[in-house]
Structure formats: structure tokens, C-alpha cells
Amino acid sequence: MNELVLGRRALLRAAAASGAGFGLAQALPAWAQPLSKGLVRPLPTVSGNDISLAIGKVSVEVDGTVSRAIGINGTVPGPLIRLKEGQRVRLRVQNTLDEDSSIHWHGLLVPFEMDGVPGVSFPGIMPRSTFNYEFDLSHAGTYWYHSHSAYQEEDGVYGPIVIDPAGPDPVAYDREHVLVLSDHSPLAGATIYRKLKQMGGPYFNRQRMTLSGLFAGRDLTAKERWEWAQMRMDPADIADVTGSTYAFTINGFGPYDNWTGLFAPGERVRLRVINASAQTTFNIRIPGLPMTVVQADGLNVRPVTVDEFQIGTA
After folding, report:
1. How many C-beta neighbours within 10 Å does residue 246 have?
2. CB within 8 A of 136, min separation 6: which ones?
3. Tell me: the pLDDT tens digits for 212-247?
4. What span, in angstroms and rounded, lies between the C-alpha atoms of 57 and 120?
5. Which of 120, 64, 70, 67 is nearest to 96 (CA)?
6. 199, pLDDT greater than 70
7. Burial group, residue 183, by CB count within 10 angstroms (0-12, 13-18, 19+)
8. How far lies 14's CA from each of 38, 272, 287, 309, in Å?
9. Contact yes or no for 254/62 (Cβ under 8 A)
10. pTM of this prediction?
């Protein structure tokens, strides 16, 4: 089989919406490269009726820079949890940290005491203790899980969930890739938050408006500036932390780490895209290749062909 590589840089502006399937042309566009060097490691996968997850400190390397993080089962993102609609699952989550932790099952319909939000649905997972989540899976789709404690989600406590349908899948495909998009910083989430509280958006976002920019037509119009002033907001508040601080990742790999996804010419590839970032909105496209959106937020939708789509946080 003549397999090709989807380059990570292309895929940060590429892919398809959660569960999107699309056909590949036989010609080789610029973003497709012959497989000539080693692949990066795939997402680890766990499945079954009884699953163990451990939250703990880890070291991660993004684009050659090593930093401390908090991961699940030793990785960031955590393992892909692959389940089946209709099954009952028990997830034993061990907190090896010296602080409280939690796991929230984002988008899953579960009993409230299993939802994993400290102070709302349960007390949280105490340090050096284990909490057993147990629930029935009543629906299929693409979802994710993450901590709801302190800044642990930004520090790396997140991962993907795929629940396969009990019956035939209405989406036909030859190959599948799960893409977890995120933003990584060597700064701890608590540090980023503290700096934002001290100085607000300008601490990280230096793309400021100027009077000369207004006169030159490069910034907002006078009317738009007045509207922002009435809200007492700076337009930069939309992106408090920018690429000067974040490295944007796919499955934990940065722009120079070259995440790769295999496919063969003519295959129909399903890409399940999850935005697990702390605050980043991604615009996704594969240059020259239309995509068909077939699922959104875990729900099958009438197929829509697009050249690009935008996916917000969560």
C-alpha cells in the first residue's frame, strides 16, 4: 500500500469537524508527503468495562523544549478512551498529586454524581486517593474528558473519548484519526492566571491599537472603538494569551514535532477533531481538499461540504 503522511503543520489548519469524513484525491497536494521517516507515537488507547486512569506529574517535550505538566497515565493528552454505546463502564481514577483533582466527562450524559465537577456534583478526588466513576453509555459520538480542578486542564489533564455506536455506523470510512488540538505553555496555568490578574491581556498580548493605526485604517474604525469602549473591554481581551506564550499542538506535538497521520490514495478518512485548548479557537482546513462535516458535538448531522471550519474551545 502506498501510504502518505498528513503533516502536522498542515493539519493545524486542516482536518474536519468532529467525526468528519472526506475523500482524498489521487493527486498528491503540497501537504501530502511520501512516508520517508519515522512516525511519532500514536495516542495510547484504553477500552473495556473497567479502566484505570492515574493523574500525576509528568515531563513533556514540545518542539524540543521540556517542561513540567500534569498528565494521565503518564501522557499529555491522556489516553484515548474507546467505548461502545450501551455498555456500562467503570473508570477508576487515581489522584497521585498532593492536591485535589477531578475528571469531568465533557458532553456525556451521566448521573449528576458522576459528572466530576468539584463542589457541584461531588467533593473532588482527594490527594493520594481513588474515585470510581461508573455509568451507562446511552449515546455514541466524539467527546473528551478533563480536570475541573484549579488549572489542571491547562496543565495537561485532558484526553479524547470515542463512543462507537451500538449498531452500524452511518458514516462510512476506510481509516480514522483522532486529533486533539490544544495550546501548551511551559508556564504553569497558575502562573499564567496570576500574571493576567496582575496586568490583564496586555501581559501576553502586545498587539495593541494605535492612533496612527486608526488614521491609516489598519485598526478598528472609530465607531467600533466606541462600541468596545462602552463594554469597557479591549479587543485583545478575546485572546489574552497568544502564540508568544503558547505552542499549538496536535496530540501533544508542536509545529516542529511533525505529527503524522497515515492514509492511502483514494481512502475515505474520518478525522475526529477535539478542541481541548485553554482558550484558543482554531480555523481548520486542508488546502485544496474539501471536507464533509458529518458530526458535531457528538451528534450526527446532515452532511455539509466545507473548505474550512472554525472550532471553539471545548
Report:
1. 24
2. 86, 87, 88
3. 766 676 677 778 778 877 877 666 666 778 888 899
4. 26
5. 70
6. yes
7. buried
8. 21, 12, 7, 9
9. yes
10. 0.83
The 10s digit of each residue's pLDDT in 296-307 is: 999 999 999 999
State the Cα–Cα distance between residues 134 and 87, nearest whole angstrom. 11
What is the DSSP code (8-state) at residue 227? H
Q: How far is CA 172 from CA 21, 82, 89, 309, in A?
A: 8, 18, 26, 21
The residue-averaged pLDDT of 107-121 equals 96
Task: Go through the chain and tell me how many residues it has.
Answer: 314
Place of cell 479591549: 234
Cell for 155?
496543565
Alpha helices (runs of H) in the chain, residue ranges in sequence order: 8-12, 152-155, 189-199, 211-216, 222-231
Contact 95, 125 (CB under 8 A): yes
Residue 241, CA distances (Å) to 13, 56, 201, 204, 233 in order: 19, 25, 7, 5, 15
Integer Cα distance of 96 and 57 in angstroms = 8
Under 8 Å between Cβ of 182 and 158: yes
The cell numbers describing 256, all together, are: 516542529
pLDDT in tens, 33-89: 665 556 777 899 999 999 999 999 999 999 999 999 999 999 999 999 999 999 999
User: How many angstroms separate the CA atoms of 46 and 310, rounded?
Assistant: 29
Phi, psi of 86, rounded to the nearest 5 degrees: 95, -15
Amino acid identity at 73: N
